[in-house]
Each structure stands twice: as structure tokens, then as C-alpha cells.
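Title: Comparing notes on inverse folding

I've been comparing how different people in this forum approach sequence design from structure. To keep things fair, I'm posting one structure and asking everyone to reply with a full sequence. Here's the target:
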């Protein structure tokens, strides 16, 4: 059985310093309560605890999003190329009327920039709305973050550290075995 205690470290405190202080506290608890003899303290980043089991799925999702973005960029480039081919006659007329090459390039760059800024603004707006919608549909309380939480009744959502009490694991040779990065707070 593992009990997790989530806490926020003071600014400037390293994980090693927090672990040292927690080991001191745990030693005092062990002296006062002999039944805690098998228990130890581990300091791990809270983010690694939360994403421990979904890290691979997040990586696959990230790769899929990058692939879709690559397809979208290819499609936009193809559409711009088709549009330029379709405007060949317009460009020929403008050149015949005395427009310089630099003037035509500026016009096409201006049109592309306006379209790019408008698409970027629309994409940012859609991403914001999607983020708001995703927050509203998620679980009200993250069960892994709430489990074993002591103190104020709700976990401190901070990515800095997670201190966990867990039974000490000992190898057959008597050496302590360090728990995995997030397994300690599960």
C-alpha cells in the first residue's frame, strides 16, 4: 500500500533538500511509531506521477497531431500553388500594364500574409475554445492526485514535488531498492 502526500516546495529548495528534510521527519516518526519501520520517503515530481501511465499515449497523440499539421500545411501549399497557376492570366495582364516584378511579389506576399494572420487568429481562437471545452469535460477531481492527500482537503497542484510514504523495498542482498519515478505516489 502506498500513501501519497502532495506538497509544494518553497522557491529555491531543491528536491534533494526536500528529501533530506522529509527523511529527518520520517526518522522522528519511525522513532515515535515503530509500526512505521518499513516505511520510507521519496520525493518525485508531481507531473511524472500524473502522466506515468499515459506518457506513451501522449507521445503517440503528439506524433499524430504533428502528422495532421504536416498534411494541412501540404494542402495549403497545394492550394496556393493552384491559385497562382489560375491567376497566370491576371499576372500577365498586370505585367503588360507596367507592373514591376517587385510590385507583383509584394502583392502576392501581402495576400499570403493576410491569409496567414487570419488563419492563425482563427486557429488560436479554436484552440482556446477547445481547451475550455476540454477542461469542462474532464474529471472534477483527478483520482490519482486526490488519493492519499492529507491536510487542506485538496491537493496542491504543483509540478515541483510529490512526497510519498511507502514501504521500503529491500533487495535479497539487503540493499534498499529505489522506487520508480512515479510509482511511489500512485
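Reply #1:
Here's my take.
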Amino acid at each position: 500500500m502506498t500513501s501519497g502526500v502532495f506538497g509544494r516546495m518553497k522557491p529555491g529548495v531543491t528536491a534533494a533538500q526536500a528529501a533530506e528534510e522529509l527523511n529527518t521527519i520520517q526518522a522522528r516518526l519511525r522513532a515515535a511509531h515503530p509500526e512505521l519501520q518499513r516505511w520510507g520517503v521519496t520525493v518525485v515530481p508531481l507531473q511524472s506521477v500524473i502522466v506515468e501511465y499515459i506518457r506513451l499515449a501522449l507521445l503517440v497523440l503528439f506524433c499524430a497531431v504533428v502528422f495532421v499539421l504536416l498534411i494541412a500545411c501540404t494542402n495549403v501549399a497545394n492550394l496556393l500553388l493552384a491559385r497562382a497557376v489560375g491567376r497566370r492570366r491576371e499576372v500577365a495582364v498586370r505585367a503588360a500594364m507596367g507592373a514591376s516584378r517587385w510590385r507583383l511579389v509584394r502583392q502576392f506576399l501581402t495576400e499570403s500574409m493576410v491569409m496567414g494572420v487570419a488563419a492563425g487568429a482563427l486557429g488560436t481562437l479554436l484552440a482556446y475554445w477547445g481547451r475550455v471545452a476540454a477542461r469542462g469535460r474532464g474529471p472534477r477531481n483527478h483520482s490519482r492526485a486526490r488519493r492519499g492527500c492529507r491536510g487542506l482537503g485538496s491537493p496542491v497542484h504543483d509540478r515541483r514535488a510529490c512526497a510519498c510514504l511507502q514501504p521500503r523495498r529491500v533487495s535479497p542482498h539487503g540493499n534498499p531498492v529505489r522506487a520508480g519515478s512515479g510509482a511511489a505516489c500512485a
